[in-house]
Design goal:
The structure holds two protein chains of two kinds.
Chain A: H1 9-34, H2 38-63, H3 67-93
Helix pairs in contact in A: 1-2, 2-3
Chain B: H1 2-29, H2 33-59, H3 62-92, H4 119-122, E1 166-171, H5 177-191, E2 194-199, H6 216-248, E3 253-258, H7 263-269, E4 275-279, H8 295-302, E5 307-310, E6 319-324, H9 333-340, E7 347-352, H10 360-373, E8 378-380, H11 390-397, E9 402-404, H12 415-418, H13 423-430, E10 433-436
Parallel strand pairs in B: 1-2, 1-4, 2-3, 4-5, 6-7, 6-9, 7-8, 9-10
Antiparallel strand pairs in B: 5-10
Helix pairs in contact in B: 1-2, 2-3, 5-6, 9-10
Classes of the chains: A mainly alpha, B alpha/beta.
């Protein structure tokens, strides 16, 4: 069962899931490119990590190799670290606002 | 059973994918970063978890299920932390609140700052490099006495011998101290100079600066006092030996004293002397150490007084070796030997190290010429490579009574430096007497 084609319903479900998740990549990419603030871009990157984990799981089903599930686990781990790193960067590197000159 | 599992897995897969896609839509469509983060954190993790569980169920094996459960557990554990950190950072970084928000509960709790502004305002000015002249890469315990290799020392006027009127013998203990003291008395007897035995100088007890368990200050004090006690015992033995030898050789005017201070203080007391005699292998903490960290090495780095490092007493010097490497200090070794006036009858051999490097061949030629002009017998040895074999070099070194080196070790630490052979260390280990001019 681990190697080779899984018969029946599962490949269809996996294909549909892959299509839906791939469609879901589009709005996240739009937010990543457009996102007015850096916080938006960091959140979109976090979401892309989740989508990547989902795609890895679907790939495991479509390819018939359970080893891809380990990749999903790895992406989840790295995504957490990336989110924390982005958060630290935004908190450390932000500067106090400059007082606007009174008109 | 299998059919039921398959149906359940297919439902989980498609449902999870749909929830993830909705979360992605929410990330794109919701009005402000905080609500977008809320979509990514909750709906995204829920959908991804469902999809992963479906994948594991579809495989149906124990390993796949375990991996998937681990991934889902990790996601549900970390997603709140990550999204909390991101949301807080977004608030601090000044992300705008959407128009639909009714209150800012964090106002006055966290201060809002600015992250997204034009880079010309945030960029820190690059630190301009300080306009200091490039220094020789030597580490000296006494930087005030460091001076560059003086090119004037290479001409013959600087090579006039200086009589050994005042000698200093450092009494620091160790296995070679008796030999060093005997050598110092021998030199002073031949040159008719005055010999001072100075014990304890340049030695400092080892201070423990690392972490210690319970009672750390007490243990650090205890270790320091142990170290100081050992230094004093060594010095007392060396002083006793020195007094005995002074009584046995009435022709030499000898005096001994004990001073405690650090390496910098020792260098100040050196000022009026013509030569310092030290035993080999003693470090600044009263224990033996690597050649590069010896008291002799740090004194030689100060370049104030020529240093004689004695491993074994040699009654009559027949052959002296000069090791010429690529450092600029190696160009004044012959001048230093002539200036010290030591061993006028010995044959001088010059050993180049890696003479394909810049300046080595020229330094060898110039020094051979200088020595011949001073009436010494000079022999040029074939050059050794940088990656020489210690077993090949040792028997060749065994025929020499003394060596003139610019430093005791060319190791600077580091991973690959530890496996590298150092010609200076090999010579210092093999030759009984080393002169550091």
């Amino acid at each position: 069962m681990t190697d080779g084609q899984i018969p029946g319903l599962i490949p269809w479900a996996a294909a549909i899931a892959a299509a839906i998740v791939t469609l879901g990549l589009v709005p996240v990419a739009v937010r990543l490119l457009v996102g007015p603030s850096s916080a938006d871009r960091a959140i979109a990157t976090d979401m892309l990590g989740l989508l990547g984990a989902c795609l890895a799981a679907v790939t495991a089903l479509l390819a018939g190799h359970a080893a891809f599930l380990d990749i999903a686990l790895g992406i989840a781990l790295v995504g957490f670290l990336a989110a924390v790193a982005f958060a630290r960067l935004m908190e450390r590197a932000s500067v106090p606002p400059v007082a606007e000159p009174a008109e | 059973m299998s059919a039921l599992r398959e149906i359940l897995a297919a439902l989980l897969l498609v449902g999870g994918a749909a929830v993830v896609a909705l979360a992605a839509l929410g990330v794109a469509r919701l009005p402000d970063p905080f609500s977008r983060m809320h979509a990514a954190a909750k709906a995204g993790v829920a959908g991804a978890g469902l999809l992963l569980l479906g994948a594991g169920l579809a495989f149906g094996t124990m390993g796949a299920m375990l991996t998937v459960v681990a991934a889902v557990a990790f996601l549900t554990l970390t997603a709140p932390i990550a999204s909390h950190a991101l949301g807080r950072a977004a608030y601090v970084a000044g992300a705008p609140l959407g128009g639909a928000s009714v209150a800012d509960a964090l106002s006055g709790v966290l201060d809002r700052r600015v992250f997204d502004i034009d880079p010309a305002r945030t960029a820190r000015p690059r630190p301009t490099p300080l306009a200091t002249p490039p220094e020789e890469p030597v580490m000296s315990a006494t930087p005030e006495f460091r001076r560059p290799a003086d090119p004037a020392l290479r001409d013959s006027a600087a090579a006039e011998p200086v009589g050994l009127r005042r000698l200093l013998c450092c009494l620091v203990g160790g296995p070679h101290q008796a030999e060093a003291t005997a050598q110092a008395f021998d030199l002073a007897g031949h040159a008719g100079g005055r010999l001072t035995g100075l014990s304890g100088a340049g030695l400092e007890p080892r201070m423990w600066r690392g972490p210690l368990p319970v009672g750390g200050a007490f243990w650090a004090d205890w270790l320091t006092s142990r170290s100081r006690q050992r230094i004093r015992e060594n010095c007392a033995a060396a002083l006793e030996d020195f007094q005995g030898k002074a009584a046995a050789t009435p022709g030499v005017e000898a005096a001994a004293r004990h001073e405690e201070g650090q390496a910098a203080d020792l260098v100040r007391t050196l000022a009026g002397h013509d030569l310092v005699v030290l035993p080999a292998g003693m470090g600044p903490h009263g224990v033996e150490c690597a050649p590069g960290e010896e008291i002799a090495a740090s004194l030689a780095r100060a370049r104030l007084v020529p240093v004689l490092r004695v491993r074994r007493k040699v009654a009559e010097m027949r052959s002296v070796l000069i090791v010429v490497g690529s450092s600029p200090a190696c160009g004044m070794l012959a001048a230093g030997l002539l200036r010290s006036g030591l061993w006028p009858n010995a044959e001088v051999s010059i050993l180049p190290v890696a003479d394909h490097r810049a300046g080595v061949a020229a330094a060898v030629e110039a020094q051979a010429e200088l020595l011949r002009a001073a009436g010494r017998k000079v022999r040029l040895l074939p050059s050794i490579e940088l990656d020489f074999e210690l077993q090949d070099l040792r028997p060749r070194l065994a025929t020499f009574d003394a060596a003139v080196l610019s430093c005791l070790s060319t190791h600077h630490g580091g991973l690959f430096d530890m496996v590298r052979n150092c010609a200076h260390e090999a010579v210092a280990d093999a030759v009984p007497v080393v002169l550091l001019p």
